[in-house]
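BUG: 3D viewer hangs when loading the predicted structure for this chain

Environment: internal workstation, default settings.
Expected: structure renders.
Actual: progress bar stalls at 90%.

Input used:
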Amino acid sequence: MDQIFENIRTRRSVREFLDKRIAREDLETIVQAGAWAPTAMNKQTFQFTVLTDKEEIASLAAAVGAALGNPAYDFYRPAALVLVSNDKDAGTNPLADAACAMQNMFLEAHALGIGSVWINQLRDTSDDPAVRAKLRAYGVPDAQIVWAVCALGYAAQKDISAPARRSVIRFVD
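Structure tokens produced before the viewer hung:
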């Protein structure tokens, strides 16, 4: 089995992280993998904003939690967050662009021994006033929303097994 397919097959979402920093070099590699994702018409309109400060991650989580009515919200307490933002009303396809970038980052993180999980809540809370104030402070343009968040950290649980795959492939010859 080739290395790429093995990486695809063995990557799992991680929702419990160790309290351990990720090396800056590894974070840069992960985000570069996202930046090399395909985009609609090669417009490359997305932005990647990386948060590594635990207090800042907790502060953003508190703002998102307040917008959701969930004061315990915590993004699973990762070592880093990558906010993937893109135009709100782009004639391109910002969610698909974000999805391609997220997959690239997930696979690169896994190759480096770092766990990851997709977080959706900022897509619906980006324009909440308290959340928008945080995003503005991070340099996310007002014309963009955060379509996806990549939470990163070292997995607290090892060897997360995969459920059996259903038969979802059909050839019509």
